[in-house]
């Protein structure tokens, strides 16, 4: 029995010294804006700083406590052992800030969505989207005799029709991809991220229009970061263009 309690004691001690990661997001009082440059401090001696999206991640021990410091004003200390979801420990500070990124408030949209248009387009041209290269297929006659499908045999030699159907399907797929790019890379969204004036925004939308592969594969964060960094590059190019070399 004594040995049993010793084992339990050392297990508890090791558990207290085990390291784990606490992560989350820091918001302002509205819970719509992310707070950047918040210092997250552990009583174990480690610290982290929130990024532009208010995110942080810090390595702690179960026996530690963490606090959040912004403009030299610390919050209360939060014992790590009492944090139920260490990977989603979000915090709202009692202050109002304006950040580069923010959560959008609920918006009710009454216009048609990209998905509705895409589904309707697929239904309208279902025979084109489901087009398959003609080949020899078997069919069953009313008398139960198996034989070659006559329509398929005819379609094999309709070269012009087959070529037109393939080209039409490719054109529809390209239009669908362009519509998806327009859905994500739209002027309202880009202006909110870049704050570019209308005239500059028009040229930026043309120069930095992303590919369908990138748009379909990127997360919301990656896509936002791409637009923001592209705007920095665009502004630098415009500044260089405005500086004309002196004539000798």
Written account of the structure:
With 248 residues, the protein is an alpha+beta fold. It has a domain at 19-92: Immunoglobulin-like (Sandwich), CATH 2.60.40.1120. Helix content is 45%, strand content 17%. It has helices at residues 2-17, 114-124, 126-129, 150-156, 159-184, 187-194, 198-207, 212-217, 220-242, and strands at 19-27, 39-42, 47-49, 55-61, 65-70, 73-74, 78-79, 91-92, 138-140, 146-148. The strands form three sheets. Strands 2, 3, 5, 6 and 7 form a five-stranded antiparallel sheet that branches. The longest helix is centred in the last third of the chain and has 26 residues, at 159-184.
How would you summarize this macromolecular structure in one to three sentences?
With about 250 residues, this protein is α+β, with helices and mostly antiparallel strands. It has 9 helices and 10 strands. The longest helix has 26 residues.
Using only CA atoms, what is the Rg? 30 Å
Shape: elongated
CATH fold name of the domain at 19-92, please? Answer: Immunoglobulin-like
What would CATH call the class of the domain at 19-92?
Mainly Beta
pLDDT below 50 for ≥5 consecutive residues: which ranges?
3-13, 107-112, 133-150, 152-157
Instruction: Assign the structural class, choosing from mainly alpha, mainly beta, alpha/beta, alpha+beta, or little secondary structure.
Output: alpha+beta
Secondary-structure arrangement, i.e. CATH architecture of the domain at 19-92: Sandwich
Strand content: 15-25%
Q: What's the total helix number?
A: 9
Number of E-state strands: 10
User: Which sequence of SSEs, written as H and E, runs from N to C?
Assistant: HEEEEEEEEHHEEHHHHHH
Largest sheet: 5 strands, antiparallel
The helix content is 40-55%
Task: Kindly report the name of the CATH homologous superfamily of the domain at 19-92.
Answer: Carboxypeptidase-like, regulatory domain
Kindly report how far apart the N and C termini lie: 96 Å
């Amino acid at each position: 029995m004594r040995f049993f309690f010793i084992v339990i004691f050392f297990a508890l001690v090791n558990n207290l010294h085990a390291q784990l990661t606490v992560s989350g997001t820091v918001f302002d009082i509205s819970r719509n804006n992310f707070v950047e440059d918040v210092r997250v401090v552990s009583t174990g001696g480690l610290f982290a700083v929130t990024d532009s999206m208010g995110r942080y991640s810090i390595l702690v021990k179960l026996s530690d406590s963490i606090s959040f410091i912004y403009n030299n004003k610390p919050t209360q200390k939060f014992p790590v052992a009492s944090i139920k979801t260490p990977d989603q420990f979000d915090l709202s500070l009692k202050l109002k800030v304006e950040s580069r990124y923010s959560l959008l408030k609920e918006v009710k949209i009454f216009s048609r969505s990209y998905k509705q248009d895409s589904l309707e387009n697929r239904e309208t041209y279902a025979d084109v989207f489901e087009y398959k290269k003609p080949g020899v297929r078997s069919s069953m006659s009313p008398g139960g005799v198996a034989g070659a499908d006559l329509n398929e045999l005819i379609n094999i030699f309709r070269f012009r029709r087959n070529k037109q159907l393939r080209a039409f399907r490719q054109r529809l797929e390209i239009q669908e991809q362009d519509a998806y790019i327009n859905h994500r890379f739209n002027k309202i969204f880009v202006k909110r991220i870049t704050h570019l004036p209308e005239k500059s925004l028009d040229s930026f939308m043309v120069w930095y229009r992303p590919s369908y592969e990138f748009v379909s594969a990127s997360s919301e964060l990656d896509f936002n970061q791409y637009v923001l960094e592209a705007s920095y590059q665009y502004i630098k190019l415009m500044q260089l263009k405005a500086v004309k070399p002196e004539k000798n």
